[in-house]
Each structure stands twice: as C-alpha cells, then as structure tokens.
Records
---
Amino acid sequence: MADLKLYDVFDMSPLRDYIREHGECRVYCKGECFCRIGENAPDIGVVNSGGFAFVRPDYKGDDQTCSLAFADELVGSYISMMPGRKSGFDVKALCKSEVSALALDTVVEYMDTISPDYRLRFTYAIAYAFMMRGISYRCQSVESRYVELLERMPDVKSFMSTSAIASYLGVTRETLSRMRARMCK
C-alpha cells in the first residue's frame, strides 16, 4: 500500500471506523511484522498509534522502505484480497505501535455493503497512490519528498532510522545527511 493518506481520492472513514469498531486491538513492538512477504495476509488494520514500514528486499538483499503508514492510516497487504495471492512485502512496526485489526474477508464483505462499487474505488485508490508515489520519485526533489514526510509525521526521526528514511526517499544515508545539513543552513 502506498501512502494512501497522501493521495486520498475518496472517503475511507467508513472503512476505518468499521475496522476500529469491530477489530481486535493489537500492540506490535519495533520490528514486529503485521504481515510477511510471501505469506497470506489475513487481516487489515488501522494504525491507532505509532507507524509501520512496508519493506521489501532489493536485488542485493537490502531492505527497502517502499511505503509508510502512521496514525489513522490503513495497514495490510491488500493484494491478498485476490485468491491465491501472497503479500509482496513485510509490514513492520517502526516503534511500539497499536493497530485495530480485522479479518480481510470480513472487511471485504463490509465494503460490499457500503456501496456496490466501494471495493473497486478502494482498489483504484491503492493503484492511484502507488502511481503517484512513483511519479513523486521521478518528478519531485528529494528535499520536497522529505519535507512532505516531515509534514505528515514531524517526529519521524525519533522512531525511524536514518537508513529507513533514506530508503523511503530513494537516496543513500550520506545523501540524506548532506541534504539535512543544507536544509538547516
């Protein structure tokens, strides 16, 4: 899932409210996975506190942070809504984090009660968010993506490593450090 909150194209509050009302409250320690790459992801959650990174190893085996979810955002591997599909990434807690989680099947059934096309619009929102995230990598400066991240989560540096932030921005740690130094001047 690609930073849905950034590219919110329709009202997901009924879904978030339903998951919070009917879901199970879970606490994850730093590094603990909500779902794992290559496995079925049986649940969808709403982050109540903390944050999660959507992580996948690159061709060298180094973890790359592809997406983030913070308070009031959804977590899970939505591709798993399709029969036989496995998660394409690990969803790891960045710090001690609390999530309201509900079975994916239950959430899909609920989506169909909201409106006949809700599931389609939800899928569109995810695809749109991934597309916009890809465009931001090609068309925005690293500085503007970093400022956007800080606006979204001002204290991100307190619970996300420099390596993970650099990975999310698509740069090296050194580039991130130099950029931060320039921005402080």
---
Amino acid sequence: MVRVGILGASGYGGGELIRLLKRHPEVSLVGFSSRRHTGRPLYEVWPQLLDERLFRPQEEVVAEAEVVILALPNGIAMELAPGLLEAGKRVVDLSGDFRLPPEVYEAWYGLPHKSPALYREAVYGLPELFRAEIPGARLVANPGCYVTAATLALAPLAAEGLLEEAFLAGMSGVSGAGREAEETFFAELNENLRPYKPGGTHRHTPEMELNLARLKAQGRWPRTHGPKEEVRLSFIPHLVPMTRGILVSAFVRLREDLSEMRLEALYRSFYQDEPFVSFTRALPQTKGAYASNRVWVSLRKDERAGLVQVFAALDNLGKGMAGQAVQNLNLMLGFPEGLALDREGVWP
C-alpha cells in the first residue's frame, strides 16, 4: 500500500480526491489537511463521506505520506514542492504552478515564480498525450478542466498539422470556481448564464496554446519540455447554473480541406486505445460524464462556413481535476491506469 496524503482537502477537488482514494485498493490515505478545518471530522466538512477521521495539520500529513497531492490555491505549491521533493516525497500538483514556463506563469497569474528550476523537472500530467513521461516522475503538473477538454478536442488536428485557427467557447459548472468564490452564491447563479474573462484574458489560454504547440511540433506523443511551434487561440468561458461539468465547443479552420468522414477516422484512430476518451457520432452532454473520468468528444463539419465544429464534455471534478490526479498517480506508481476510476458516469 502506497501512503498518500492530501493538502487542501476542503476544496471541491480535495473532497473528490478523498472519495476516489478511499476506494483505491493500492493506496492508504494517511491523512488530509485544511487550514480552516484542522481538528474537525471529515464528515462535518464532506457529509457524503462516512468517515470520522480528523483533518490534520499539514506537517503530520506530510510526515506520513510517500506521495503528496497538492489541492491548494495557485502560488502555494511552488513554495512547498522543493521541500517535499528534498524529503523524498513524490508530488502531484493540482494548481497552475508548474504547468507553464515561469515567465509565462508570471505574466498570466500575476505572481512571482519561487521555484523556476523545478519547472524543468515537472512532467505535464495529461496521460492521453504525455503518458510515456509520467511513470517514475517525481513532480506531475495536473492539468485543469478547461485545458483538458480543449486540448483533447483539438489534439488530433494539431498533431497532424491541420490546425489553422480555432475559436473556443467553454461552459463550466460552478464547482469549477471553487468553494469560496462569490460565483457559487445561489442568487448569482439561479436562472443566469454569463461569460467571464473575455478578450483573451483567461489564464488557461496560454496552457491550451502550449499543449497544441507541442503537438504541432512533435506529433502524437509530445514531451513536456520538447520543441513547440506557435499556436494562437481565442477562448471565452461561461458560467452555467449547474454544479459540475465542462463543455467546450471549438470552431476550427483547417489548413487542408478534409471531409467529415476523414476527420472522424482521424479522431477514432487517435483515441482508439485511450480508456477514458470516447469519440462518438453522438454529441457530448455533461451528464454523460458526471462523476466519471470520461471525456466525450464529437465533431461536425460546417460545409457552408468552411469550419469544423469539435465538442468535448467532461466532469470538471473528475477528469478535469481529481480523477485525472488519480490517473496520474496510478501511472507514476506503476498501477493499472484506471484503478479506482469510473469510465461510466452517474445520472445526477
């Protein structure tokens, strides 16, 4: 049994991590921390989990764990990771701290990067593209929900050099905003749908571009720190009055005119061996991925406008966060990739 601890377990992603790891047959969940809830039993913070264990101080959790999962706000992991690695721990980080080159991170997150050297060691944790790098990694940067959906929607096109330009609209359930965000207030959400971070200002935009730039330069199986070619996207997110789920709709202009049949064949070949990506003719729905680690991808060709429409749906707390972290954990430790994860969702 591998001893795993979670820091930041009172957020939505932390709660989902606990639910998944409690049933993991190869993991001993040795502890979970929260600065706000230290000393309180788990079931008081997460009533769906029948567990009387207490939230413990961060130092106690770290001392007992072999692998530490950081479900903390941006800016904290870069301070903790060096000490954790020096102590022989392995780390999965759910924040944005190690996903981007330090200079890009600083420009988009508005924070000075305190561990820039560690970025060169971090492996990007999107298994469908970077699977070969994850086993044995000490530090994995776990992608977020919008980026996972957008990258997997466009990856086959970028890897084949077909991506000319793309415009993306993302729709997110409110758990993606975090447990403390004002956006989760009922009065702000009910009977309301709104865009936010317009004009190319959303901080996940450069991460999407970086992933596709890697694919454009390196092909099907890119390396985190390998070469890249420039890609520019236009992305606008929207907040939807539902608890969990992500749907990304991409409108793509191709470098080469391909039929819808050939495009579907490309996607089916690209994802045919991926256990958590379903490419189908049916159009994605967020309920189809609810509480699972599944990504549901589909496409249509708009002959009249000369565009390809690509759609991807996932659960932002599953494949978009905690589920993907467990998938990365399994790969890091040599376990079957799907251990403790669901390919099928539940009807909420």
---
Amino acid sequence: MSLTPLPSHVKLQLGDARSLKGGLGLSRRSTGSSRPCFTGPAIPGAAPFLAAPLGRWTLRAGRRPGMEGVPIFNQLREMWRRKLKLCAVLSVLMATLWLWQGYQGWTNLSTFNATQPWYRRLPGSTAIESWLLGTHPVVMAHGHALAVTKSTLQRDFAMDTRLVDEGQLHRLLTACFLHNSVFHILFNLGYLYTVAPLEVGCRGAFLSTFLISGIVGNLAFLHFGEARYAVGASGGLCGLIGFELVSLLRSRKVREFKVLLRSTFGMLIMGLFLPGCANTCHVGGLLCGFAVALLVARRSGYRAPLLPWPFLLALLALMPFGRRFLSALMQALLVAFQHPGALGRGYVI
C-alpha cells in the first residue's frame, strides 16, 4: 500500500500532533489555513455575566495545557500584571476561605457521623452538596437542631443578627469574606474583577471604601433585613460602585456614569427577584460609597482625596463604635484561634 504525501497546508509539526492528541483545534499559525482558530468552549452553563469576567478556556495547538488554561487563574495573572495586586490578593483570600469552608463542612459531617448509629448517618455527598449549593440539612442532636455540614468559619464569622446584638460586632466585617455557594463566590469574584481597575488610582482608597461599605452594608442588613444570616462581599463591592458613580459625575464623564448607573440599577432589580439575596446590604453599601465619595473625594476621584485615608480610618477607629468594633474583632480572632466554634455557640465578647 502506497502513502500519498500530505499537502503542505495540512502538515503538522511534532508539537502540534501532541497537542491534537487531546482533541484541540488548530490555529491559523500552525495550519496555514484561513479559517479562524478554535479557542475551546466557553465556561459550561455559565451565565453571560459570569462568562464575561471569568473569560474563556483558551488552548491552542502547539501549547501544552497547564494552569494558563484555567479561567480564574488567567484573570488573577492579568490583575497581577496590571498591578492590581490588592484585588488579586482579595480574590485569592476569598477563594481560599471558600475552599476551607468546604473542608470544614466535610470534617464536621464526619465527626457527627462518628457519634451516630449507622441508620442516622448522613452520606459524605451531603457535605459536597452543602458546600456547592449552600443547602445545610438540619438534624436533631442532643435535643438541639444542628446544621452539621456548616463550616466552623461560617458559625464563628458569618453575619448572625442575634449574635451581633449580643456583642459579636466582628461579624459585620468578617462576613464580607465568606460565601455560601459556588455560584455566590463566582458572582462576587466576577464583580470584583469588574471593579478592579478602580484600584489604579489609590489602593488605600479602594481598600478603605470596600471595608467601610461592607460594614455599613451589614449594619443595614442588621436593622432592615428580614433574615438572620448573611455572608458575602456584595456590600463592599456596591460601595466601590457608589464611589465610582460619584467620581464619574464629578469628572463630568456623563456617558460612563449612565452606563454604570444602568448596570447598578439592573443589579438591584435582579436582587429583588433572586431568592435569599440580601438587597438591603447592597443598598446600604451603595449609599455608603456615595457618602464616602462626597465627603473625602475630589473631582479626580481616587487619585486626590481631600482627607488622607489613614487619617480617615484613624478618625473612625477613635469613635465609640469604632473602639468597640476593633476590640470585639481582636478578641474574636483570638477566641476563634484558641477555641474554634466557641463564637458560634454564643461566646460573649
């Protein structure tokens, strides 16, 4: 049997053949063809607002697949390259805490099953389902209702209106770094990637606005919310959006202001229809961002604050509520390190 030589436009190099082994397409550079290259599928099942910030899984022939093919890793690398280091650190911190929540939920379930007879034990898949979807089954143990798959981090640091009223003020801030499900954290990481360019002007202003708006958003949830529990960075992110809205209006960038205003309005309307969405926290954070921008920012926005950010934070820390909050935060971190789970059981600070 004779072999017919392949035409020049379909010849492949050795590296391309290895790449094709995994089923990847060919780029124009490797084939010489005029057809556009195949960059792989978009994120399966992702909504448009998630696909845009998280990007696409891009692998071409001739490249060995590695971490550069992971969408979130690509965005972190891009933020680091653009010197948006604070946003990159916040993203890694939130993702790490969410992974730790999943591990703690599985550990708590294993501990519960070890103390129960075989017919009352829950399958291990329950912990994975609770971690991904945020559904925590409640069982009766020693006469008390207990969500066995809830992580110790959530019990000690999530927003709990009853425990905050009892003095655990640290939850107003720590709840901003925890999330309830995979969709929740992906949505917030996507929004964090969207507002990341605001860090370019001043990291101090960006971080201060995020923290203050997160606390005020949780205070709004405490006084006006209808639920007891809440987690998420939405309040701080809405505060950054509110700050930017004022900065754009002062800079007379009307077109950019209208685009951002429509996007913010759509987000708030969507929050009214999503089940379990703490829209009061979003509104509180947004209004706080407005107030901070009106009080301390010049027309140039983040680049030239009227009041130095370290002085502003020191002023807030010296107020009576600020002193009580910092004291409660330091004590809570110490107690959580020495006795994990004690804060969730109602430890009085």
